[in-house]
Amino acid sequence: MKNIGSFYYKNEQSGIICELCPHNCHLRDGQIGICGVRQIIDGELFTLNYGEVSSAALDPIEKKPLYHYKPGKKILSVGSFGCNFSCGFCQNYSIAKEYPNTQYIPPEELIKIAVKAKEDGNIGIAFTYNEPSIWYEYIRDVISANHENLDLVLVSNGYISKEPLLELLPHIKAMNIDLKAFNKGFYNSVCKGDMDNVLNTIKLASSKCHVEVTTLVIPGYNDAAEELEDLAKWLAAVNKDIPLHLSRYHPAYNFHVPPTSLQELLSAYETAIKHLSYVYIGNVLGAETKTYCPHCHEPLIKRNGFSAEVLIDKNKCPFCEEHINIIL
Predict the structure, then answer these.
(1) How confident is the model at residue 285 (pLDDT cuts 50, 70, 90)?
(2) The whole model's pTM is what?
(3) Euclidean distance between CA atoms 295 and 274, whole angstroms
C-alpha cells in the first residue's frame, strides 16, 4: 500500500532528497530509492511497503536473537520487503531484494493479532526478517496504535538517520543490531553502506533501550582475529555488558564461500570474551549458549535450541550478587 513518506525535502536542482537513512537518495519523479520501497510520485515521496506484511510468525525471542531480553518468552515477528543494504550474503534476499507476495495489515489490526497471540505466550511485536527501519511510517503508526503496551522490538542493520531513530527509540524496548564487520572497506564494497553510521546507531540505541549485537562471521571477509578483537574492544568501550552473537555463515544469495567452521567460531568467541561479559555462538547446532555470570561463572540461563530455562528471578547473580544485564 502506498503511503506518504517522512523525512525528505525538495531541492530545485536535485529533486527530492530522502533523509530516512544515510544514503540520502536524490530522486526525481518515478524513481525509487536504494531501499526499493520509497518512490517519488507527482513530486511527493511515497512508501510502497506501508502495512505490507510478507512474513509473520510467533517466534521464541531467542530467535531474533535476543538472549537477555525476557528469555523464554515468545514474540510475534513480522516483516515486509526491501532493504537499504546490498549484502551479497543476504539470507533473506527473497524479501530484501525481491517483491514477494504480501498481505496488507493495518496498524490497529496488527495490534489485535498480537494481543490475541498473548494466549500463546506472546509479549509483543518484533519488526524483523527484512530491514525494519525502511518500514518507518508503518512502525510509527503501530506505535501510535499500541494501547495495550505490547513490547516492540527491532532487528535491524542499524542504517538509519539520527532523527528518525530518536523518534522511534522511546517506544522500542529492545534491538538486535547487525554489525556486519569492523571494516569500513567491507561495508563499502559488500554492503554498499558506511560503517560509522551503524556504530553511531549502536551507541545511541544502547543508551535508550536494551541492545544486543550480531556479527555473521564470514571466512575470508570479516573473520581476521585482529578485526574481531577490534570489534569486541569497540563494543566493550560502549558497554562491555552488551551481548554479542557470533553467528555462523552459510552460503546464500551471491556468496558461495564455504560455511564458517566451528573452530573459527570458537576462536572468534575466545577473542571476544576477553573483552565482553556475554558472547554467544549462533547458527550452530549444539553450540554452547548458556548465560553465565561474568564474575563467578555460574550458569544463569540454560538453553536448548531456542528454548530457555531461566534460573534467576532478578538481574543479579544469586551466587555472587553481580549485576547481570538482563530484562526478565
Answers:
(1) confident
(2) 0.97
(3) 13
